[in-house]
Design goal:
The chain has about 120 residues and is mainly alpha-helical. Strands 1-3-2 form a three-stranded antiparallel sheet, with helices on one face. The relative contact order is 0.11.
Amino acid sequence: MAKLLFSLRNVPDDEADDVRELLEQNHIAFYETSAGNWGISVPAIWLQDKTEYPRAKSLIDDYQKERFIQQRAAYEQLKREGRHRTLADIIKDNPLRFILYIVIIFLLLYFSTRPFINLG
């Protein structure tokens, strides 16, 4: 019976590739499912043999700890150099999208509170 090992939803391609390579290097049989045409299925890596789960999970946990340390160090380096992305950078990249989001938020707040305001 197959066992879910690693969800691929919102996982960067390089991380997914690293996990696949890690499993292949350790001769752990797995298969992959995609999100499907409409993106509602479970994109994941599944183990073919669930008895391999503890070993595979341990390998992935160790990999993710190392990746966290590497990514955090890279972010801190960018931050020291002043090249990390800030909210101001995101607004500068696409100001119309930012304005649209603000308008949508205010409309949602308005329509959510309007019935209560009209009661008084």
